[in-house]
Amino acid sequence: MDKLKALSVLDGRYGRITSSLGEVFSEYGLIRHRVFVEIQWLKFLTTELGLADIPSQDLPKLDEIFADFHSGSAEQVKAIEKTTNHDVKAVEYYIKEKLATAGLSSIKEWVHFACTSEDINNTAYALMLKKGRDFAAETVLEVLERVEALGEQYKSIPMMSRTHGQPASPTTVGKEFINFAWRIREELGKFRETDIQGKFNGATGNFNAHAFVFPEIDWMEASRKFIADYLHITPLLYTTQINPYNYISTLLHNLIRIAAIMIDLDRDMWGYISLGYFKQKTKEGEVGSSTMPHKVNPIDFENSEGNMGIAISMAEHLAVKLLQSRFQRDLSDSTVLRNLGAIFGYFQIGMQSALKGLSKIDLNQKVIENDLENNQELLAEPIQTAMRVFGEENPYEKLKELTRGRKITHESLEIFIDKLDKVPSDVKGRMKKLYVKDYTGMAEDLIDHYFARKSI
């Protein structure tokens, strides 16, 4: 019943797909990552800067506070928050309680030392995004590998192209999949390479409190070392109270482009299924229509398109909104950031639906062959191009008169070729032997080139 009453499809209908993301982007996930950052900062202050004494044998107790964190621990933090009315302060008090229980009360006032809440929040979100990106990248790679496999499988199957929806120069089925594979691979590389950035520099980004109490410490270097070595993200130095979130905008724009490419693939697959180029494997017990028993609808590609659209719209808003903050800080980014998980959730649903759709298709080669056979006018392109080379007059216009808006046969093409005056007889022979199914250019070579370059 909980899933049936869920307000969002992310936790309801599609909960089985998005549950893994809940560990990262939920309220529990955010609190847990905040605890991690606070503990790492406490360890840094004690072990790296030596600002507080802690026996070496007690250091594992700090790690245990995070290692032992569970859903009940998060509930304890939320209970504290009811009094503090401040979520990060509640985390601080929770850790202090744990330190007291562990016999480490002497260092409890070093928890959250010189920090603003955003030092903890922005780094917690950075760590969450790092995990979310890895999760998304794995799914994208899974789809990419499926698309590449289809490209290889159908490498040599000729297919009539469609430009503006009209018959156009043939390609191969495999080449059309590889076109998508290249686009996805390009964006996936950029998605993976984006630096995940964090700042740890105090209330307005200037290390004010740090420098006042310990002017002898190089706080810029200390901040760099903590962020890079303890949190394993990229240090960010020039900020106000908050992270300017340029990196999130970059990451989301990459995700938007991947989602948009997937929508393009979804729509093409939908179209090819409607043309009969692909059949869909049926499953015992499934129903395609409540009233038309014969139907097998391309619902997976439709589902992917719809969910990718939602992911894009949300990501577009965050990618722009997070770059804006009044003066040194306002809270409008805080509520927006809590929706990062929803973006990754809808994106995940879209990718999984596309993957499911791609796993259910079978090529209907007979329909593809019929289209090639019934569109002999596609040979107007190579014939008029050869006519240009050998000086025939008005080659384009002559082929236009013969083929535009009408169906022709291979025999009528042969008659036309025989009447050419300047084209050599051996070239005429090649023209007559050319069939639409053979006119795929270098489509197969391009597929080979893709796979050769991919391995470099």
If you had to describe this structure to a student in words, what would you say it looks like?
It is a single chain. This protein is mainly alpha-helical and 456 residues long. It folds into 3 domains: 20-114, Fumarase/aspartase (N-terminal domain) (Fumarase C, Chain B, domain 1, Orthogonal Bundle); 118-282 and 295-364, Fumarase/aspartase (Central domain) (Fumarase C, Chain A, domain 2, Up-down Bundle), CATH 1.20.200; 375-454, Ribonucleotide Reductase Protein R1, domain 1, CATH 1.10.40. Helices cover 62% and strands 5% of the residues. The strands form 3 sheets. It has a two-stranded antiparallel ribbon. A two-stranded parallel ribbon has the order 3-4. It has a two-stranded antiparallel sheet with strand order 5-6. The two termini are 51 Å apart.
Terminal Cα separation, in Å?
51 Å
Tally of strands: 6
Q: Sheet with the most strands?
A: 2 strands, antiparallel
Low-confidence stretches: none
CATH-defined superfamily of the largest domain: Fumarase/aspartase (Central domain)
Q: Which structural category do the helix and sheet elements fall into? A: mainly alpha
Estimated share of beta-strand residues: 5-15%
